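Can you give me the bound-state structure? Components:
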Amino acid sequence: MIDPLEEAVRLAEAGVADGSGPFGAVLVTRSGAWFRGVNMVTRDDDPTAHAEVVAIRAAAAAEGFDLSGATMYASCQPCPMCLGASMWARVDALVYAATADDAARAGFDDARFYDQLRDGLDSVTDVRVEHRVIADGSAPFERWLGKVDRVEY
Amino acid sequence: MIDPLEEAVRLAEAGVADGSGPFGAVLVTRSGAWFRGVNMVTRDDDPTAHAEVVAIRAAAAAEGFDLSGATMYASCQPCPMCLGASMWARVDALVYAATADDAARAGFDDARFYDQLRDGLDSVTDVRVEHRVIADGSAPFERWLGKVDRVEY
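Here's the bound-state model for the whole set.
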């Protein structure tokens, strides 16, 4: 049987052939099922549709939003968005083949975005980030804590 | 007219009422259109469906994957996933009301995830990250660079 990491790279190769981008991912859930993802950013006009996110969405739709016990196999080191998505999905482990520097050499911004996150979260990213203090800005959280039937995630 | 940041907080309040979670976002695109998002994680079984991601997806579906010129208004400091999504969407600016520490007090992991990203990307996150070197692991990028009709993003 093909290894899931090899399969992720194979999906990345297929993504080059069909023009969607050189990324692929396979999420193996605790049930043992494989959920595949390829980059759909330009095809679906969805900048969040990286291969890992596509795989997480497919897996969570089938098995629920808590994917603990799953392992993500990615053709390339996940970008900050995809690493964050894996954290929220409670994925146990993440295995990747190519590095963010490899992606940088192919014209992708992963390495630069990582550097920005490392350097500081508030001002040095491509996105200008501003904290604006407004009345009741944190009121939703107080209400949330007061809600006894909340579903935590 | 209501301010988009106030509207984001109002959406967060509504999210508490309907049980989806205390987060809201309004993405104002370069066209001046407003795209709203609320947290849909538990409702849609999609761990990536944070308010900001939902707003980005809606905006990109309408106006294309490159949202440069847009400003994101978020009820709370975006988590690493949402900040990453904003970077990839080429959002110009991001304005938030409550902080990741406010979210932490309400039981959310944003602050912890940020700390993990700051401390190091390879081993100290909730997700065990492993770089596995395999043959042809970066081959998709070489093919990508050789593809003359690629759509960059």
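A couple of observations. Chain A touches chain B through 93 residues (CB under 8 Å). Strands of chain A lie at 24-28, 34-38, 71-76, 93-98, 128-131.
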